[in-house]
């Protein structure tokens, strides 16, 4: 059996798209408590698990990873960030890892019900050193046996480690991109990612 979904991407400093469960949040887009209840995305404690690690598209920059942790309602939350092999966080001004605590509101889903959750975070360029990135990541239940991304006619299997998957791209349009999740029973679920809107910078006004 094959399921089809289409996911929209909303652009901000860090954005979110979700499949499966109820939408959670990126660092700058909190979960509306009225939709899921705050305890569904509040961390149950301080422990977390690091999932797959992938290299940044630019050589020499810190790697990317996904950490997962349980919420107070035993949902699974996932967060994408940078790592030096030891710490998890964001990239600092000197390319060092600035450690991040678990967020009060996270990107979470009930994997006992939905089997997988998919988020897409877009981070635009902040300066010449920090180029734009698209992180496609999520959490999966034990029923999932594989995750693949098809983009520009090319399909690649994404690493799935400790219940999470991840890919990081250098600001593509994502037009026509499809994420395929494969299950142990032989069924698949295809998610089409809508293109990221392209915004041209506003030229400065002259007096």
Would you kindly provide a written description of the structure presented here, covering whatever features stand out?
- This protein has 207 residues and is mainly beta.
- 4% of the residues lie in helices and 43% in strands.
- The chain contains 2 helices and 16 strands.
- Strands 3, 4, 5, 6, 7 and 8 form a 6-stranded antiparallel sheet that branches. A 5-stranded mixed sheet has the order 1-16-15-11-12, with no helix packed on it. A 5-stranded antiparallel sheet has the order 2-9-10-14-13, with no helix packed on it.
- About 14% of the residues have low confidence.
Mean pLDDT: 80
Low-pLDDT stretches: 6-35
General shape? globular
- SS element count, helices: 2
Gyration radius over CA: 17 Å
| Class per helix and strand makeup | mainly beta
Main beta sheet: 6 strands, antiparallel
Distance between the termini: 62 Å
Total number of strands: 16
Portion in helices: under 10%
Q: Give the DSSP E fraction (strand runs of 2 or more residues).
A: 35-45%
Order of helices and strands: EEHEEEEEEHEEEEEEEE
Describe the structure concisely.
The protein is mainly β and 207 residues long. It contains 2 helices and 16 strands.
List keywords for this structure.
2 helices; globular; mainly beta
Task: Set out the fold topology.
Blueprint lengths: L1 E6 L10 E2 L13 H4 L12 E6 L8 E8 L5 E8 L4 E4 L5 E3 L7 E3 L1 H4 L1 E8 L9 E8 L3 E8 L2 E4 L2 E2 L2 E6 L7 E7 L4 E6 L14
Parallel strand pairs: 1-16
Antiparallel strand pairs: 2-9, 3-4, 4-5, 5-6, 5-8, 6-7, 9-10, 10-14, 11-12, 11-15, 13-14, 15-16
């Amino acid at each position: 059996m094959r399921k089809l979904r289409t996911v929209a991407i909303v652009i901000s400093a860090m954005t979110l798209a979700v499949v499966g469960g109820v939408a959670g949040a990126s660092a700058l887009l909190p979960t509306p408590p009225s939709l899921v209840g705050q305890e569904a995305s509040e961390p149950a404690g301080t422990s977390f698990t690091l999932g797959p690690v992938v290299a940044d598209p630019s050589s020499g920059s810190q790697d990317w990873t996904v950490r997962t942790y349980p919420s107070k309602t035993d949902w699974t939350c996932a967060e994408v960030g940078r790592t030096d092999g030891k710490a998890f966080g964001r990239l600092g001004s000197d390319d060092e890892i600035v450690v991040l605590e678990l967020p009060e509101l996270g990107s979470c889903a009930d994997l006992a019900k939905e089997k997988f959750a998919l988020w897409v975070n877009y981070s635009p360029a902040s300066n010449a050193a920090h180029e734009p990135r698209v992180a496609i990541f999520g959490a999966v239940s034990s029923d999932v046996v594989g995750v693949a991304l098809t983009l520009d006619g090319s399909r690649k299997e994404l690493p799935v480690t400790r219940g999470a998957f991840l890919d990081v791209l250098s600001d593509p349009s994502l037009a026509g991109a499809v994420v395929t999740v494969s299950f142990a029973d032989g069924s698949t679920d295809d998610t089409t990612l809508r293109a990221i809107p392209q915004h041209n910078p506003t030229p400065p006004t002259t007096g």
